Amino acid sequence: MTKTCLTTEERERGTVFAPKFDSAGLLTAVVVDDASNALLVVAHMNAEALEATLASGKVHFWSRSRGRLWMKGETSGHVLTVEQVLVDCDQDALLIRATPAGPTCHTGAPSCFYRQIDLREGEFWLAPLAT
Fold first, then answer.
1. How many domains does the chain have?
2. Are strands 68-71 and 60-63 parallel, antiparallel or unpaired?
3. Range of the domain at 58
4. Taking the alpha carbons of 55, 59, 63, 67 in that order, is the dihedral positive or negative?
5. CA–CA dist 66, 63 (Å, integer)
6. Whole-angstrom Cα distance, residue 76 to residue 109?
7. What CATH number has the domain bearing residue 78?
8. pLDDT at 87
9. Long-range CB contact pairs, 31-35, < 8 A, 24+
10. Does the residue 2 lie in any domain?
11. Residues 65-107 pLDDT 10s
12. 3, part of any domain
């Protein structure tokens, strides 16, 4: 990773990996199951989390609620093993293809996206996805 200032053309079409962190020092990381393409989790990474992910091959995030770096599955054992990391055009978001070693969500659901918003009787409600 580099902190070199790049032109828009270099950032969007070049070969230099220069992640663009927001004002809080974070970028968005979207994780999908490499085998099924299911969306598993959307979280944030700071430079330390990104470096740990790339070095270890296990997905790490910056927890805004805990205020610390954490490896997904560090307590449950349900780690996410990196298969591929894709970067978007302006390098401020990542798509991580990973192999999960168990449920991804802390609730025990396979994905953090296990409910949908339904409109019933003029009110919005959450309903579990049909399996």
1. 1
2. antiparallel
3. 8-128
4. negative
5. 5
6. 13
7. 3.10.20.810
8. 97
9. 31/59, 31/80, 31/96, 31/98, 31/104, 32/95, 32/96, 32/97, 32/98, 33/97, 33/98, 33/99, 33/100, 33/111, 34/83, 34/84, 34/97, 34/98, 34/99, 35/99
10. no
11. 889 999 999 999 999 999 999 999 999 999 999 999 999 999 9
12. no
What are the φ and ψ backbone dihedral angles of 116, each rounded to 5 degrees? -125, 160
Estimate to the nearest angstrom the gap between the alpha carbon of 63 and the chain centroid. Answer: 12
Enter the tokens of residue 85: 């990391």
In a domain, 28, yes or no: yes
Q: Which two tokens stand for residue 21?
A: 């962190």
Collapsing DSSP states into helix, strand and coil, what is residue 55? helix
19: in domain: yes
Answer yes or no: are the C-beta atoms of 7 and 72 closer than 8 Å.
no
pLDDT of residue 131: 66
